[in-house]
Amino acid sequence: MTHLDIQHRLRENADPAKAEHAQRFFKTGKGEYGEKDRFLGIRVPVLRSYVREFQHLALEETAEILQSPYHEERLFALLLLVRKYQKGDSAQQEAVFRLYLDTIQQVNNWDLVDSSAPYIVGAWLEKREKTLLYRLAASPNLWERRIAIISTFHLIRNNMFDDALAIARLLIADRQDLIHKAVGWMLREIGKRNIAIEKAFLDRHALTMPRTMLRYAVERFEEDERKRYLERKQ
User: Fold this and answer.
1) Nearest-angstrom CA–CA distance, 94 and 88
2) Res 1: pLDDT
3) What global pTM score does this model have?
4) d(CA 152, CA 143)
5) φ and ψ at 161, to 5 degrees?
6) For residue 180, how far is the Cα from the chain centroid?
7) Which of 207, 158, 164 is nearest to 188 (CA)?
8) pLDDT score recorded for residue 129
9) Which residues of the chain have pLDDT under 70?
10) Cα–Cα distance between 172 and 88 in angstroms, integer?
């Protein structure tokens, strides 16, 4: 099958009503983070079923789908790349990682980042030098900064916290709410595995963190302790 064949199959599941709702949910209005993104109205479980069906699609054809103007088709391509990475040998994993970086401008909404960055970028860099994450964290592009912090989720799951904490420090002054939420989420994930490390970070930085970031970070704390951190912020 070619990418055109698969896009035809995907579009058979289009639902205009769901597409309209998605355009509001993903903030596609003028000046919003998803401005001009286009939707078909295909549910994620449907996309995942096609990933299983077409997991052996050539990498070149997957790359073509990733160029689609439609959000769900880009998501499908990214989910397919994750599948290829997880099932591939080292050569295929490197090819997937390189393709991801070459087409990073197509990873341009929060769900696209969250569904792919930990499983490709984070996984590839686990045992390698992490300079790329710091370069992305300094990018003027919102989605590249989110890729930087969300990629550390793979490291966090393997009890490797240093880079996540360092990138969190770099992003504390970020102006974007979607970065505040992502950093707070990663701090919370660190806390699930080592609460002392998370609290040490919060004790040092809570007063300068955006409130949303702090609120996400302390979400799982006991009520009195959560209130204590949030009241310190006030």
Assistant:
1) 9
2) 84
3) 0.96
4) 14
5) -105, -15
6) 13
7) 164
8) 97
9) 233-234
10) 36
Looking up tokens 């099932």 gives 87
Task: State the Cα torsion 225-226-230-232 to the nearest 10°.
Answer: 10
Structure tokens at 97: 């990682």
Type and span of the H or E element at 189? helix 177-193
CA distances from 16 to 21, 41, 48, 75, 190 (A): 9, 6, 20, 18, 40
The C-alpha atoms of residue 26 and residue 80 are separated, in whole angstroms, by: 22
Query: What's the pLDDT at 6?
Result: 96
- H/E stretch holding 55 reads none
- Token digits of residue 141: 């592009």
d(CA 34, CA 24) in angstroms, rounded, equals 9
Q: What confidence score (pLDDT) does residue 234 get?
A: 67
Distance, in Å, from the CA atom of 31 to the CA atom of 17, rounded to the nearest integer, reads 23
Residues 6+ apart with CB under 8 A from 33: 27, 109, 110, 142, 176, 178
- 34 three-state secondary structure: coil
Backbone angles phi, psi at 135, to 5 degrees: -65, -40
